[in-house]
Amino acid sequence: MSKIKTLGQFIIEKQADFPYAKGELSRLLRDIGIAAKIVNREVNKAGLVNILGEAGTTNVQGEGQKLLDVYANDQFIGALQSGGECCTVISEENDEYITINSDISKNAKYIVAIDPLDGSSNIDVNVAVGTIFSIYRRKSTDGNATIDDILQGGTEQVAAGYIIYGSSTMLVYTTGKGVNGFTLDPSIGEFCLSHPEMKIPKDGTIYSINEGYYTHFPDGVKKFIKYCQVEDKTTNRPYTSRYIGSMVGDLHRNMIKGGIFIYPVTAQAPNGKLRLVYECNPMAFIIEQAGGKATNGYERILTLDVKELHQRSAIFIGSENMVKKAEEMMQMFS
Ligand code: AHG
Ligand code: MN
Ligand code: MN
Ligand code: MN
């Protein structure tokens, strides 16, 4: 009996956890897994095919889109359109949400929010990039999904996950019953269970933040950074600074080793840079399910009001006790 458990086998096995499930969420996760394998194929040979560099277009965020941003966006949206389980897609790369009106999707009840390629600035320099996805169930029962279906809070997510295209390619996801990680075995083209029941250590010695913006950080963040740097053997300080510019890469490392990732408000990003719907909420769901914590410095990320598709938020996310310490300083000094 082979020890391998593929993503598909795992999803079907876990479907039993959801008595009402009729397989739609399973098929939706399968569709995302297929698109991830296609994107992975291009990421792995990015230097050989004309997929590096700028697309020459700008997204609603005001960011110059990379060719791989556009390629990944097309692949994930294409997979969701042909899979038939998704009625609406929200993407970092599209100003408005996309209503899927095909015959096979007319009874689809899921909404998918996606950051098709996270860490785009790393593509041309061969540093890990990722994809982040978040899945909601529509509230309305007929016609096209409405804005109320779209702007649901983080606690309404039914599933969330990320793919990291790193030294190996992994898909990590939760449906609210723990977090499981799958590594792509290229020889059989399958994501195979490699990290069952992932848990983030309650403490850690890694802090991830772009200290280039230090001057404009809130005082509470400055105090926390200094706390991380003070010599104190009893609390394993000074900590280690690790920041690669891909939220997925930084969070995955911190999930495995323990650590905190902070993107606070800065002069350039007065509301924070990271997007609530397809970066902060899905990653907060995953990290909480792994035993970690995620706040904006004052409030739990998952309970923040979602008012706009591309709304930004400050985020402090990772090992529970490190986030608590940072939150303490934010509430004391900022
Ligand atoms: P994206 O590539 O999807 O736009 O996201 C990039 C984000 C996140 O992945 C990363 O942590 C952060 O931007 C880095 O921002 P700075 O370059 O400002 O540090
Ligand atoms: Mn971007
Ligand atoms: Mn991103
Ligand atoms: Mn992106």
Automatic annotation (TrEMBL):
This is Fructose-1,6-bisphosphatase class 1. Mg(2+) 2 binds at D115, D118, E279. Belongs to the FBPase class 1 family. It catalyses: beta-D-fructose 1,6-bisphosphate + H2O = beta-D-fructose 6-phosphate + phosphate. Mg(2+) 1 binds at E92, D115, L117. InterPro entries: FBPase_C_dom, FBPase_class-1, FBPase_N, FBPtase, Fructose_bisphosphatase_AS. It comes from the Bacteria. Its EC number is 3.1.3.11. GO terms for cellular component: cytosol. Homotetramer. HAMAP family: FBPase_class1. SUPFAM superfamilies: Carbohydrate phosphatase (SSF56655). It comes from Mucilaginibacter arboris. Substrate binds at D118, G119, S120, S121, N210, Y243, K273. It holds the Pfam family FBPase. It is an enzyme of class 3 (hydrolase). Residues 5-196 form the Fructose-1-6-bisphosphatase class I N-terminal domain. Residues 200-331 form the Fructose-1-6-bisphosphatase class 1 C-terminal domain. Binds 2 magnesium ions per subunit. The gene is fbp. One of its GO terms (biological process) is sucrose biosynthetic process. It is found in: Cytoplasm. GO terms for molecular function: fructose 1,6-bisphosphate 1-phosphatase activity; magnesium ion binding. Its cofactor is Mg(2+). Pathway: Carbohydrate biosynthesis; Calvin cycle. Keywords: Carbohydrate metabolism, Cytoplasm, Hydrolase, Magnesium, Metal-binding.
